[in-house]
Design brief:
7% strand; 46% helix; 447 residues; 10 strands; two-stranded parallel sheet; alpha/beta; 6-stranded parallel sheet
Amino acid sequence: MTGIAMIATMVAGCAEAGGAAPPGSGATRAGGSSASADAAPAGTEAATPAPEESVPVAASETMEAAGVEGILASMSVEEKVGQLFMPVLYGPSADTASGENQARFGVDSPAKMVARYRPGGVILFPWAGNIKNVRQVVALTNGLQEASPEIPLLIGTDQENGKVSRLAPLVTPLPGASVIGATGDLSLARRAAEVTGTELRVLGVNLDFAPVADVNVNPRNPVIGPRAYGSDPKKVAPMVAAAVQGFHDAGIGATAKHFPGHGDTGVDSHTGLPVIKHSRSQWDRLDAPPFAAAIGKDVDAIMSAHVVMPKLDPSGDPATLSKPILTGLLREKLGFDGVVSTDALDMAGVRKKYGDGEVAVRAIQAGVDLLLMPPDYREAHRALLAAVASGKISKTRLDQSVRRLLKLKAARGLLDRAPVADPAEAERVLRSAEHLKVARLITSKAR
């Protein structure tokens, strides 16, 4: 469809001195795409400001909003539904043929899947064959973006550092959140996130599923533990806020997780369904502050938890499927209007009561915008299309989610043009002496 590309190109042409690509070209990358400029690490852009940075903030925001609404108005229902998904695609390159892709999506390569379903994004994992070496990852992310010329992709990963480090050993081996929390130094939380974000950005990754905003009040927690900054919400909240700021310093999106809080559980939601019996007042005091702090820093996304909190929602549904929690608490009480992502939908905690298609529908009804890693993609996709066609999910509700996703992409510069990563720049930035120094400093200050 060329309508989306034409509108996005015109908006980009207003924001950039270089002008727009020809109408109907299918490109949103107006004004050219210098690989070295797109891949520049945080801190270098101030020396050579892009033309759009001279646009007054109010005017820039107006153009951004107009671009989002124009693109939204041009999209078909099928394209809007596609934006709600972030699957895992298999293979080291966009053109790699894989039996897993064929079985799950009916096409053999990541590029063909993106072209057919037009998902909002893709998440990278080593076990899916996505992460081998620096040049391979850069080629993969560039190839994925080339397969989605009209609306660039969110390309995400779980790079928390420490225990959860999907891009190890390519990136700087930074300590995890508990070590950073032990330093008591907010500037180190911010610097660590900036280092991580800078390294992700030069690889072509634009959204990190970090930081962890859980308060680990249960020392026997089998799934969070050292992934959290600590057990005191008064100390965790400012650490989370500092990390969000650090990711933004690097120019990538941040995701606070796992709402409404996964810190007081003895069950791993990957294999079971945890029940957390916090009262509303306990939740306000223990679980909510780090998420409120992240929202205060304009965090791009918040990930839901597959946990049951019966005092917050007596239905027995996990938070991922709970409208009282995701809409009532997160949207209405905490005032969050960014993207709500599910945790991985292939986890046991969200599949106890409903089939995979019904899970996808219920998640959107609850307030979710981004469906992460549905185990049966085609079933979830069919179920959402049917739910919109029947009115079970209204077109207004669908537009709310797509609008939030487009706004996230616009905020990270993705609607002007897809980023093009430069392998030479990535090799220079990853594990640089400066970044390794930050890692050593954090370790030395932990107590």
